[in-house]
Write a structure and sequence with these properties.
The protein is an alpha+beta fold. 52% of the residues lie in helices and 15% in strands. It folds into four domains: 63 residues; 216 residues, no CATH class; 321 residues, no CATH class; 196 residues, no CATH class. It starts with a helix and ends with a helix.
Length: 893
């Protein structure tokens, strides 16, 4: 504060310092005059003895470190004056950078809100998420993700740590049917009873859970509802407290209503919270609490005051080591970090990977923008060569000139950064809304904040500083080393035959722009081709007029015999519906992104081969139009032979054509046997070969795939495929009516089979649109860069062109000369861009659906298109060069 105060009063201090020097000199002069010298002689003698008073004054000021601040302020004022004198240049440069910086800041804002920002809870920076991974000899049961915890492990970490004031365990995304006149599916969370106190959340109505309500499994059926569910389903009635609702046909007493806006600690908001000890009541048929070696619970703890993440890791590692002693050969590694929506190692890696890829693509656009602005600065510096030479001649150092030029660059970057950041903050929420509305049908609703925080502001500031250095440093270095003598003699080299300043550097910048643009355009072209393939693909089976009816009988408390009876009765009712000409059962629907997998052993070969499989009824193949090309399909007798619930108890299997070729090349697969990697290692016999179809993933028809017959004990998990000629709306109404006639409280989902393709098309569509926009923007910026380079080169060669035309060159000769020289950096950039595109295109293979990452059409058409655009951008100024009047050009000398 003292330094700042003195800085503000520095002019008075400067005056006092100057006055002190003058007084000292006067005293010395008076002393010499008293010794007999004349006044004039005494003055000269005193000054000689004292030294250069001005230099001493300047050095004295430097001790105070204020001149550097004054110099910086002077540089900023001068930069503002120079930019205000060139408003066209300033506007173009600022808008170009605002576009690049804004796009990057907007993407980072969304990534920050989804994956980096701490949970929207009180003192969220004190909340730590805990996940685990295992090495060594591990045999682990998994219900959800492998890095979660069992209930007994949670109790160990909860009871034996001293770093948390509370440790929460919860099971996210628990599907349940809320019973009413119109049953509805809701997603909730099963939680430990300290959930609300540890998270610092107090229900607005009623109360949270008591510790005693988690003391005994199944003893306390109580529930807290979300504010959204309370308002939408129960009309925000306060009388809901104390009443009973049913979740998966189990009664629960409502004891509280969560505060508005609170959806839990997952990115998908929860509709209700129930004690984790009520797991069996909510999820019928599973006993998760009893399995000490089961991964199913997420852990989040609130750190005590003064405790760091390092201390948490150290103490919990001790507990993990003690638990490993009960599992010889196992080594547990804990991942502990500040809790976010994507704290899980797998989700965190995916979110950061996707975010980094998008930021990389948008960063390439910013790179092109920087190259464009750098070209503008080079052109502008050429017009200031005389000014710079004069400054150097008067004693300015090159370092001082570079600092002055960089001040202008950083000022442009700052203006672009502020404008771009404001645009990013304004548009981020709209972008998220647009993204979420284009997710495929059935995708979970996601809720997260994209408001800017300190992390976003720091990112925007650092990006602005890096951008200013990126486009400003090279032009500043180039402009600050002119030939002083030559420049002072010639004035402006552009009109006197001198070399055009920074020509080589501008060509390099153009080559960089073209190379980057090529990468973005080819990526966009590949994605567009992949999207078109996904839109027009023939999956190898019929999707038209096929409805998928699904429900969860196990969660509704159905026993296996009851489920088998229900399925049989429902199939009879569906078959009898008007317009229905086919009904089949399936374990997983084609292209649903739900996969069953196992290992098989082939006679005569060592090891296990991983395959996908499905469980289907006999009429599955005929309903979907998948012909059995060899052998036979399933008969009713094959299904009856499946007499228990284990995979592989059927004696027969149908394989796909590609599976048969790979397992038994050149042999007849009928009658061959496979040993399954399931309990008992059952052996099955191949009775049929089905035509290849893209039932697993679009664009992949050669997946190793097996079909097993559905048995009685598979019935609780089977879905129905219904082919109807009366249209989807009528078929869906009839299917629901048939199911509700058997069980009025059963929630039934009916969707089109062809909608499963949207699960795969939606990501491709979103990424294709984003890449297309970035590619178009990159093309525009690169074209402007080429145009600017050629225009400036032509303006700097007016005299040369005039001489050539005077000596006999015609317009065509001049045009060819300019185009040939302009397209050299374009050609080099194209070659480099093609090489880079070939290297990065493999990363897009998962979104191409059968299109090769090195697709010949994209790698031929895109370069041709880009070259055409750059030739056009070069032709316009080159054509202008042919209109030069030789007499006018020579008169400029």
């Amino acid at each position: 504060m003292n330094w700042i105060t003195q800085l503000l009063l520095r002019r008075r201090l400067y005056g006092d310092f100057s006055q002190e020097i003058r007084e000292h000199l006067e005293e010395k002069i008076d002393e010499l005059v008293a010794s007999g010298m004349s006044r004039e002689e005494a003055t000269y003698a005193a000054r000689r003895e004292f030294g250069n008073a001005t230099l001493i004054e300047e050095r004295g000021r430097e001790v105070w470190q204020w001149p550097s601040v004054e110099s910086f302020i002077a540089d900023v004022r001068y930069a503002l004056r120079m930019l205000s004198k060139n408003p066209g240049f300033t506007v173009v440069a600022v808008l170009t950078l605002a576009l690049g910086i804004g796009a990057n800041t907007g993407i980072f804002t969304i990534l920050n809100g989804a994956a980096l920002r701490p949970l929207p809870l009180p003192d969220s920076d004190r909340l730590a998420s805990i996940y685990q991974s295992f090495r060594g000899r591990v045999r682990r049961n998994v219900y959800g993700e492998p890095n979660l915890f069992s209930y007994s492990e949670y109790q160990d970490y909860r009871d034996h740590n001293h770093v948390f004031s509370g440790l929460v365990a919860y099971q996210p995304s628990v599907e349940a049917t809320l019973g009413s006149d119109r049953p509805q599916q809701v997603d909730g969370t099963l939680v430990s009873c300290n959930y609300f106190p540890v998270f610092g959340v107090q229900p607005t109505l009623g109360r949270g859970f008591l510790d005693s309500e988690c003391a005994k499994p199944g003893a306390n059926p109580v529930v807290v509802l979300s504010d959204a569910l309370w308002r939408s389903t129960f009309a925000a009635s306060p009388s809901i407290l104390g009443t009973t609702i049913t979740l998966n046909r189990s009664p629960f007493t409502v004891i509280g209503i969560a505060p508005p806006g609170f959806g839990g600690s997952e990115i998908e908001p929860s509709a209700f919270w129930a004690p984790v000890t009520m797991q069996r009541a909510v999820e019928r048929g599973s006993k998760l609490l009893d399995d000490d070696n089961l991964s199913w619970l997420v852990l989040i703890g609130r750190m005590r005051a003064g405790v760091s993440l390092g201390q948490v890791r150290a103490e919990l590692d001790v507990i993990a080591g003690r638990l490993d002693q009960d599992h010889p050969g196992r080594k547990t590694t804990l991942a502990i970090q500040t809790a976010t929506f994507f704290s899980g190692p797998e989700e965190h890696a995916v979110a950061l990977g996707v975010g980094a890829a998008i930021l990389g693509a948008v960063g390439l656009v910013l790179l092109i923008a920087c190259a464009n602005v750098a070209s503008l600065l080079l052109a502008r510096a050429a017009g200031r060569r005389h000014e710079i030479a004069v400054r150097l001649a008067l004693g300015a150092t090159r370092r001082r000139l570079v600092r002055q030029l960089l001040t202008e660059s950083f000022l442009i970057a700052a203006l672009g950064g502020v404008l771009g950041s404001l645009l990013a903050f304004w548009s981020a929420e709209a972008g998220v809304h647009l993204l979420l509305t284009h997710l495929p049908r059935g995708a979970p609703s996601l809720v997260f904040s994209v408001s800017p925080d300190a992390r976003v502001l720091i990112f925007a500031l650092l990006l602005t500083l890096i951008t200013g250095a990126a486009f400003g440093l090279m032009p500043a270095l180039e402009a600050s080393r002119p030939d002083v003598n030559t420049t002072l003699k010639q004035g402006d080299a552009r009109y006197h035959g001198g070399p055009v300043a920074g020509g080589r550097l501008r060509r390099v910048l153009v080559g960089v722009q073209v190379a980057v643009c090529m990468v973005l355009l080819i990526s966009a072209g590949l994605l567009m081709r992949g999207l078109y393939r996904a839109q027009t693909i023939d999956p190898g089976f019929d999707t038209k007029d096929v409805a998928v009816a699904s429900f969860d009988l196990t969660a509704q408390g159905y026993s296996q015999p009851r489920a088998a009876t229900f399925q049989q009765q429902l199939m009879e009712r569906l078959t009898a519906l008007p317009g229905v000409d086919g009904v089949a059962e399936t374990g997983t629907t084609p292209l649903s992104d739900s996969h069953f997998g196992t290992g098989v052993s082939i006679a005569g070969r060592e090891g296990w081969q991983q395959v996908e499989y499905n469980i289907v009824s006999p009429n599955y193949f005929s309903l979907l139009g998948i012909p059995v090309t060899r052998g036979r399909g399933f008969a009713k007798s094959d299904s009856l032979m499946v007499n228990d619930g284990q995979l592989g108890t059927a004696s027969v299997v149908v394989v796909t054509e590609s599976t048969a070729r790979r397992f038994w090349p050149g042999q007849d697969p009928i009658g061959k046997t496979l040993k399954l990697q399931s309990e008992g290692h059952h052996t099955v016999t191949v009775v049929g070969v089905a035509r290849d179809a893209q039932v697993s993933r679009p664009g992949e028809s050669d997946t190793l795939y097996l079909y097993f017959p559905a048995g009685p004990k598979d019935q609780p998990g089977l879905q129905f495929l219904v082919h109807s000629a009366i249209g989807f709306a009528g078929a869906a109404q009839g299917i629901k009516a048939a199911a509700h006639a058997l069980d009025p409280e059963l929630p039934v989902s009916v969707v089109r089979l062809e909608d499963n393709l949207e699960i795969w098309r939606a990501p491709s569509r979103i990424v294709s649109v984003v890449s297309g926009v970035l590619g178009a923007l990159a093309l525009l910026l690169a074209s402007l860069g080429v145009y600017g380079m050629v225009s400036y080169a032509v303006s700097g060669r007016v005299r040369e062109i005039g001489i050539r035309m005077t000596l006999g060159a015609d317009g065509r000769d001049v045009l060819n000369l300019v185009l040939r020289q302009a397209l050299r950096p374009v050609a080099v950039g194209t070659i480099i861009g093609l090489a880079c595109s070939a290297a990065v295109s493999n990363a897009l293979s998962s979104l191409l659906y059968g299109v090769s990452p090195h697709d010949l059409v994209s790698f031929l058409f895109i370069p041709f298109f880009l070259l055409s655009v750059t030739i056009l951008a070069s032709y316009v100024p080159a054509r202008r060069a042919t209109k030069v009047d030789p007499m006018v050009a020579l008169r400029n000398e």
